[in-house]
Amino acid sequence: MKICDRSFTMSCMAKNPPTVRMRRLGAQLRKIREERSLTLDEAADLLKLSKSALSRMETAQVITRRHEVEYLTLKYGITDEGLRGSLIGLAAAGRSRDWIKRHGALSPGPVIGDFVRMEQDSSAIRTFQPIGIPGLLQTPEYARAVIQSPRLHPDRNVDRSVDFRMARQEALFRSNPATLEVVIGEPALRQRLGGAPVLQDQLRHLLDSSRRTKITVRILPYSATRNPGIDGPFTIMHVETGNFAVVVIESLARSIFLEDDTEVTRYEMVFEDLCAVALPEAESSTLIEQILRELEDSPEEGAG
User: Fold this and answer.
1) DSSP string, 88-124
2) Burial of 288 (0-12, 13-18, 19+ CB in 10 A)
């Protein structure tokens, strides 16, 4: 089996910046080559590729397809099925391919980003949100209020953005749903985004969601004397297709992806610490119910 050099250098050139998967696959391929003490020239000769083509693969300048990865693992003599499956998974699209076919037209932008793709391909998601309800647990009207809060894009199609966010929640309702663990700051439960009725519906939905088998909701209360997540919100995704974890830090301008295992471990430790400081699940539900009763008793107080 021989791969045409032209397929790497021409038809598979990446049109957009490399995705997390592409970067990770390229780094893995380089590591495998170096572990075999092969120079680029030697590896290219073994693989029947040009040096430039192999270099582009290792630096994620080209999209390496599944059948090409299968060929490379064969030529490199990789017999570890776990490693082989991980490499092939990085080249495959996973569940996100079918999800994009169904919902891609709803995307508010021309490109569906890494965050959404990996969200659909994840088996476990952990997120800390100190001032808002996580997107995967938002109601349509609360999502609308969140999306409309920054007034930077007056021409934005809000209805489509809301529909897109709701479609993302499919990750929690598919036949093999992702496990979701969230730690939410108490301010998120009290700020009346969209008005009191919207927040009431959102809190009821949060309670209902917390009763699902694979969803865990903990609240970091005002009374907490420590906040391990003082630096701000973050999400840890364990991506099943490719078998890797990544930390995502979102901001108004862009999303930052931390892929280094040491960095991911650091955030895992912070999340575990947040869980220890936050209220247990039952007490978290009690606090949500208490705030919901307060809203029902004085629905218009502080509205606007």
Assistant:
1) HHHHS-THHHHHHHHHGGG-SSSS--HHHHHHHHEEE
2) buried
Tokens of 274: 């947040």
Rounded CA separation 219/221 (Å) = 6
**Which residues lie below 8 Å from residue 250, measured CB to CB, with a gap of 6+?**
115, 233, 235, 256
pLDDT digits (tens, 9 = 90+) for 83-139: 888 888 888 767 888 888 898 888 877 666 888 889 999 999 999 999 999 999 999
Residue 129 · residue 185 · CB < 8 Å? yes
Tell me the Cα Rg of the chain.
22
Give the C-alpha separation, 237 to 100, whole Å. Answer: 18
Task: Give the single-character DSSP code of 13.
Answer: B
Q: Are 258 and 246 in contact (CB under 8 A)?
A: yes
Residue 217 contacts residue 283 (beta carbons within 8 Å): no
pLDDT digits (tens, 9 = 90+) for 129-160: 999 999 999 999 999 999 999 887 778 899 99
pLDDT tens, residue by residue, 35-75: 999 999 999 999 999 999 999 998 888 888 889 999 999 99
Mapped onto helix, strand or coil, the DSSP state of residue 126 is strand
Do 90 and 24 meet the contact criterion of CB atoms below 8 Å apart? yes
Q: Could you report the per-residue pLDDT of 13-39, keeping only the tens digit for each?
A: 556 677 888 888 888 899 999 999 999
- 184's enclosing H/E stretch is strand 179-185
